């Protein structure tokens, strides 16, 4: 059974930082592309960051220069370091995984972790 378990969300003031973690079980982690989606209340889901099995990364324009995605294959874990957080970053953040690339409907998704940024 595949599980993606997120942690690290919380409440932070604008300008602050958080690091999200997602640990995967039930997949050969090193072979999977990993990513983070977010969904804010009343807004469309947004793909925030992705990292493929080779370590190449891509980011939404809204987070470039502030967020960094990294993976640790030895720990089956992907991280999202979020710096200079803004109230607009408030959302539920979901970890996703797929065998080749992260598309509109990833094969696996975690339950999400809430990030709230106060102004």
Q: Would you give an account of this structure?
A:
The protein is an all-beta fold and 119 residues long. 0% of the residues lie in helices and 51% in strands. Strands 2, 4, 5, 6, 9, 10 and 11 form a 7-stranded mixed sheet that branches. It is globular. The mean pLDDT is 96.
Q: How would you spell out the order of helices and strands?
A: EEEEEEEEEEE
Instruction: Report how far the terminal alpha carbons are from each other.
Output: 40 Å
Structural class: mainly beta
Mean pLDDT: 96
Shape: globular
Helix content: under 10%
* Tally of helical segments: 0
Rg value: 13 Å
The major sheet is characterized as: 7 strands, mixed
Task: Give a topology summary.
Layout: E1 3-7, E2 10-13, E3 18-25, E4 33-39, E5 46-51, E6 57-59, E7 67-72, E8 77-82, E9 91-98, E10 108-109, E11 113-118
Parallel strand pairs: 2-11
Antiparallel strand pairs: 1-3, 3-8, 4-5, 4-9, 5-6, 7-8, 9-10, 9-11
What's the short version?
The protein is mainly beta.
